[in-house]
Known about the structure:
By secondary structure, the chain is an alpha+beta fold. It is 30% helix and 27% strand. It has a 5-stranded antiparallel β-sheet, covered by helices on one side.
Amino acid sequence: MTENQRPQSRLDPGLVDPRSVATMVDASLKRGSSLSIAFSDAIVGVNLDKLGDWTITVGLSSRSDRFHQITSSLESLGFFQATENEGSIYMLWTTLLSEIGDVRTTAEQTLLLALKALQAPIVQAYIC
C-alpha cells in the first residue's frame, strides 16, 4: 500500500441504501447467531436469537469526541444505556421491548439508522 492509498471500509458505500443492510444481514445472520461491525470508536453487535427476537448493541468509547452526539442519536432511535465497562458505554435496542409489526424490517431500519449515526461527522457547536 502506498502513501496515497487509504484502506477503504467495505460498508461505507452501502450504508446509504437500506437494501445493502438487508443483504448484509441476510448473508451473515441466521437464527441463533450474531454479527459484529467495528468502527474506530465503536462496535455494533446484532443478534438474532432462536425465538426470532433481535438485539442491537452499540459499544461506544466514552473518550470519543462524538460520544454525546452518538448517544443522543441512538437514544432517539429507542436505544438505552445498558451498562458501562472499562471506559465503554453499551447501548441496547431490542424487539423484545417494542410492539412492532414486521420485526425484521424494523430491526434492519434501526440498524441502518444506528450505523448512519456512527458514521456522521462531528457537529461543531458554536456560540452566537
